[in-house]
TrEMBL record:
Stretches assigned to the DUF6596 domain: 187-287
Name the record gives this protein: RNA polymerase subunit sigma-24
Domain (RNA polymerase sigma-70 region) ranges: 17-79
MF term (GO), any: sigma factor activity
Lineage: Bacteria, Pseudomonadati, Pseudomonadota, Alphaproteobacteria, Hyphomicrobiales
NCBIfam families from the UniProt entry: sigma70-ECF
Length: 424
């Protein structure tokens, strides 16, 4: 294995193991910021050692053991704070003695631990924006650049938020715990937002060589199910769960055997998971029963439900989808939602109507580098027979896309669009 191969392997392992390491160490140390610092040190150690020694058989266990040794060293160096540290040292030493296989420390009820970590990161002392950014960095392993793209914000702004949030957590000594009662309700909206963003990153990865990150979707779904038990009367918890279940039901049909994306209208709907669709529709019905039908997540779930109920693409209720997007815009003024509404209008009323909306978004600063704006425009132009313009739009989209699979898909669409006539 070449040094480059080892480096790619380390980064792939890191994406998977980072949230497990942070949650495991946070549970032991009761200090989220220290846990993240130690996790970063374990990554540095892997980058230093694995190119020479090779990737361990159990890389996650190696990283956890390394982080725990660093934790012991750090606590011993700061022995002047003896009472608390001696207790933590004793717990760590006892855990290591009782756990000869360090890999076991990675599987301690990971879904609940992730949720506890998110509740900690979503403390009211942090700003709403900082909570989500910090959680995405710790749990998804996203870079500040990737988080900035998710929020359509400058990278420097996101970096400052994360630094301030970590400092606040460290200096205030906030407990690593799942809150109860009124405190839980106070943090719930932010927690729902973070789980939503984690699922989205798993559903369509912003960066990397793979279009999907299934483990993130799995973790988000598990946390969403737990949240409906923790807050059973909260309609948006059920709305979010419905949205995730319905979207996840399409997973098997979203990529081909090589892992390349398959667009919604081209998917084999027989491969959609009908049991998961039923669970999603049930969660949506519960959200509506609780009065949350007009909520942010429930409205999105209702949109996905329109696709789930259509046996073929031609049966899709596009006028209803367009109406639901209009309602969603009434809640959140977002150019991305307006872009999605343009797609629905283009299907319901024809591509010219959709293109008029898309062209009206051309000057939106937040969409300046958003690859789906020229991608949607290319699709509408192609349907109008304006093939040369469609090709240019797809080519622009491919240069803006940061996911390798999505970039290649857009390049293929540019080639297929041709310059003068459709390719048959």
């Amino acid at each position: 294995m070449t040094a480059a191969d080892v480096h790619r392997t380390i980064l792939a392992v890191w994406r998977i193991e980072q949230p497990r390491l942070i949650t495991g160490l946070s549970r032991i140390l009761r200090d989220v910021t220290l846990a993240e610092d130690l996790t970063q040190e374990a990554l540095v150690a892997a980058l230093e050692h694995w190119p020479a020694t090779g990737v361990p058989e159990k890389p996650g266990a190696w990283l956890m053991a390394t982080a725990k040794r660093r934790a012991l060293d750090d606590l011993r160096r700061r022995s002047m704070l003896a009472r608390k540290h001696e207790m933590l040292i004793r717990d760590l030493e006892q855990e290591q003695q009782a756990m000869p296989d360090p890999d076991a420390g990675l599987d301690d009820d990971i879904g609940d631990e992730l949720l506890r970590l998110i509740f900690t990161a979503c403390h009211p002392k942090l700003s709403r924006e900082a909570r989500a950014a910090l959680a995405l960095k710790m749990i998804c392993g996203l870079t500040t650049e990737e988080i900035a793209r998710a929020f359509l914000q400058p990278e420097a702004t996101i970096a400052q938020r994360i630094v301030r949030a970590k400092r606040t957590l460290s200096e205030s000594g906030l407990a690593y715990e799942t809150p109860r009662g009124a405190e839980l309700s106070e943090r719930l909206a932010s927690v729902l937002e973070v789980v939503y963003l984690i699922f989205n990153e798993g559903y369509t990865a912003a960066h990397g060589d793979e279009w999907l990150r299934p483990q993130l979707c799995h973790d988000a779904l598990r946390m969403g199910r737990v949240l409906t038990l923790v807050a059973p009367q909260e309609p948006e918890a059920h709305g979010l769960l419905a949205l995730m279940e319905l979207n996840a039901s399409r997973t098997a049909a979203r990529t081909d055997a090589a892992g390349d994306p398959i667009l919604l209208m081209d998917q084999n709907r027989a491969r959609w998971d009908r049991l998961q669709i039923r669970r999603g529709l049930s969660a949506l019905a519960r959200a509506c029963e609780l009065g949350g039908g007009p909520g942010f997540y429930a409205l999105q779930a209702a949109i996905v439900a329109c696709h789930a109920r259509a046996a073929t693409p031609d049966e899709t209720d596009w006028p209803r989808i367009a109406k639901l997007y209009a309602e969603l815009l009434g809640l959140v003024r977002s150019p991305i939602i307006e872009l999605n509404r343009a797609v629905a209008i283009g299907m319901a009323e024809g591509p010219a109507a959709g293109l008029a909306i898309v062209d009206g978004l051309a000057g939106e600063p937040a969409l300046k580098t958003y690859h789906l704006l020229p991608s949607v425009r290319g699709d509408l132009l192609h349907r109008l027979g304006r093939f040369a313009e469609a090709r240019s739009a797809f080519e622009l989209a491919s240069t803006l896309a940061t996911n390798t699979r999505e970039r290649e898909l857009l390049k293929r669409r540019a080639t297929e669009a041709g310059g003068d006539a459709p390719q048959l």
